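Task 17 of the worksheet. Students: predict the tertiary structure of the chain below and write it out as structure tokens. Keep your answer in the requested format; marks are given for formatting as well as content.
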Amino acid sequence: MKDKIIKKATDMFLKLGFKSVTMDDIACEMCISKKTIYKYFGNKEMLIEEGTEVIHQKIHTLMDEVVSKNFNAIEENFEMRKMFKEMFKSFDHSPAYQLKKHYPEIYEKMIANEIQDCHKMFTQNIVKGIQQGLYRQETDVETYAQFYYTLIFSINENTLLEIDAFKLEGKALEYHTRAIATPKGILELEKQLLNYI
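Model answer:
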């Protein structure tokens, strides 16, 4: 029952907003009593916290799936974008923006985890791109990985609408890639941009 509550609540939070969905709404939607929810979660914040952890795990499972398909480094980044677009297409408001605004403590905890994971993933992508001749040999891997995730997180936490965040992330990806790409990498980027439009 606990997992079912987390799943339903998380779906509702993402679609309707973390602030606007109440414990009553969740109980009503699931045809259970509010008492049943409180048996597993002391308050709404605990439910949101567990829900964000489930989303975190789901995102990273999907990211690992993309990486396992062995795309070249630039194509891999575009495939990640497709995956995120599919995952968040039904949401009007950016989940990160909402979480930061209404539940900053939960947001900070989530971001600390995400930064660690994204740093690792972006670093691996840059190293892979250098090995494939798509990114410049002299690229400062640590610095560019940090630049990129700082840019992506800043967009997500400061952009209200999911559609606007998604467009800006696309521009950030192009900006990031152009900054480190070799001529061969630029050709691959242009190909991906054409495929993506």
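Marker's comment: The longest helix spans residues 104-131. Residues 52-196 form a domain with the Tetracycline Repressor; domain 2 fold (CATH 1.10.357.10).
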